[in-house]
Design goal:
About 45% of the residues lie in helices and about 15% in strands. The mean pLDDT is about 95. The longest helix has 18 residues. The protein starts with a strand and ends in a 6-residue tail after the last helix.
């Protein structure tokens, strides 16, 4: 099975043997980071996986829209690192980046989010990289960038936040969009459930956002949650009469989708 968005560096705080469990589960992942220490840890996992034939780790980097500058953290240094990683061919995707207008605190930083997103998009275009987008209560911010986004190899919407019609509109505009679903489909999020049930199967990805989107009764999320998420989406698709309505079919399709997006050998 494949995991389109997670944070292995952070997951270690909750699950000491996370990497061992990932390998045993046979899960390929796209690992998100926002500073050098996190990225280099994920890169070390990727190199080791390549050397011993373990399930792959794809390395993503961006400044999260919830970040605020201060202390040891600098936006300019983060963007400089993004550019250097892209130039050195060390990045598999730019992300997670985007917009978060969920509450007043985040809305105060909207102008900075605009500036940072522009830098991320510039890097993704320059190095022909996919983007992984975090968008909360901010889908209206995405559509003005449709012309630029359609030039990218792929655009992944992490924990898809929008309505079905919004996703279909992006596809009509030529954006090579993929919609990643996590535990929200098991929490009666009606828009996410409808999208997962009715989007084309070749546009769907699975994720846990480990450790940040736990299932009910859990303290954190991890790779083992993918089974329940996949089964739930398959049931939703069966009820809707959509293709890929068994867990096995959906797992096969989402795995193919994952490697189309993140593999350096992608043929998009």
């Amino acid at each position: 099975m494949t995991e389109a968005h997670c944070h292995p560096w952070d997951l270690r705080e909750y699950l000491e043997d996370a990497e061992k469990e990932r390998r045993e589960a046979g899960t390929a992942i796209a690992a998100s980071s926002w500073n050098r220490e996190q990225f280099e840890y994920h890169e070390s996992l990727a190199k080791k996986a390549r050397s011993d034939g373990a399930p792959q780790v794809f390395c993503c980097f961006a400044l999260h829209p919830q970040l605020s500058e201060g202390g040891d953290f600098s936006f300019s240094e983060g963007i400089e690192l993004l550019q250097s990683l892209g130039a050195e061919g060390r990045l598999d995707a730019v992300g997670e980046t985007g917009f978060d207008l969920f509450n007043e605190e985040y809305r105060k930083g909207e102008k900075i989010q605009d500036e940072i997103f522009a830098c991320h998009l510039e890097a993704a275009l320059k190095y022909s990289l996919p983007m992984v987008l975090h968008v909360r209560r901010a889908m209206h911010k995405i559509f003005p960038f449709a012309k630029e986004l359609k030039k990218l190899p792929a655009v992944v919407f992490h924990s898809w936040p929008g309505a079905r019609g919004e996703g279909e509109a992006l596809l009509r505009r030529g954006v090579n969009a993929f919609f990643s679903f996590g535990s929200v489909v098991l929490k009666n999020h009606r828009e996410a459930m409808a999208s997962a049930a009715l989007f084309p199967a070749e546009r769907i990805l699975l994720e846990t956002d480990a450790p940040y989107q736990p299932l009910h009764g859990r303290a954190f999320s991890s790779w083992c949650d993918l089974e329940a998420i996949c089964s739930c989406i398959a049931d939703l698709r069966k009820e809707a009469g959509s293709p890929c309505a068994t867990k096995e079919e959906l797992e096969e399709t989402t795995t193919a989708n994952f490697f189309k997006v993140f593999s350096p050998l992608r043929l998009l």
